[in-house]
Amino acid sequence: MSRQVQLFEKIVQTEPMKSMLKPGGRRIPEWARFDSLEETKKLIKYSCTSNHHACGTCAMLPQEKGGVVDPRLSVYGVDDLRVCDASIVPIIPRCNLQSTVYALAEKAADMFIEDLH
């Protein structure tokens, strides 16, 4: 990750990208330096968070397998509560999770309308 950050720094310091960015723009944290791999590692350890696509914390699985929601997105054991977000995806998909969530939302909207009638 440190080498990737250094590559990004090289890209933003190279034209045409350099002229598109604010000269002397503020860094967060302000002490961030990418001159050496050790300095970049220090920054990564200080400021980076997970870059995983978190999902599965309310997995749509049978309850006996640890699932939290059923196939109609209702939470087991709770009346009138449904979940429709990345937390219902039981495994991390190979694609960007955003497109999966859009598809889930479209399907959920259809199911919710069906259930209202």
Quick structural summary:
The protein has 117 residues and is mostly helical. 39% of the residues lie in helices and 0% in strands.
Descriptive report:
The model has no long low-confidence stretch (mean pLDDT 89). Helix content is 39%, strand content 0%. It is mostly helical. It is built from 4 helices and no strands. Helix 1 crosses helix 3.
Q: How would you sum up the global shape?
A: elongated
Radius of gyration: 22 Å
Number of helices: 4
- Mean pLDDT across every amino acid position: 89
Assembly type: single chain
In the predicted model, the low-confidence regions spanning at least 5 consecutive residues are none
Strand content: under 5%
Tally the beta strands: 0
N- to C-terminal separation? 51 Å
Largest sheet: none
Structural class: mainly alpha
- H/E order of the elements? HHHH
Measured as a percent range, the helix fraction is: 25-40%
